[in-house]
Amino acid sequence: REIGFLDEALAGIMHHHERVNGTGYPMGLAGDEIPEFARVISVADAFDSMTSTRSYRPALSTEEAVEELRRCAGEHFDPVMVEAFLRALEREGWDPPDPVVPPDDDVAETTSQDHDDPSAPLRVAGGGARR
To answer: Which of 49, 52, 74, 116 has the fewest C-beta atoms lying within 10 Å of its C-beta?
Structure first.
């Protein structure tokens, strides 16, 4: 917060869950009350989220995500920002990131430490069980 030149970035991050219809958070801002950078981030973040696999659902296709952005333009997202994003997407294309593939032995080593032995990293089995 004390780094002045990052004020626009802070406002963008803080308000990117606001919705143009005023139903978002943290402050319920609407339309042009929402900082411009936050309106940009909102569209990009939603697209990234929709096209990424989550633990609770598979990734949407680019076409499905585009359809959802268009459907929500004017309610959730600034329609000008949606159209600008879609023009950039059409011009530049989109290659979703490769999925994370667990190692063959289905065990991952983390940088977190075991509270019983802080010198030993946790080893996590594929189902989330601790070893």
So the answer is: 116
Task: Count the helix, strand and coil residues of the chain and give each as a percent rounded to the nearest 5.
Answer: 40, 15, 45
pTM beyond cutoff 0.70:
yes
The bridge status of strand 121-125 relative to strand 107-113 is: antiparallel
Residue 96 or 92, more confident: 92
- Residues 44 and 19 sit within 8 Å (Cβ to Cβ): no
State how far the Cα of 90 lies from the Cα of 54, in Å rounded to an integer.
25
Q: Which residue has the tokens 């402050």?
A: 27
User: Hey, which bits of the chain come out as E strands?
Assistant: 107-113, 121-125
Answer left, alpha or beta for residue 128, where phi above 0 means left and psi between -120 and 50 means alpha: left
Alpha carbon distance 62, 108 (integer Å):
30
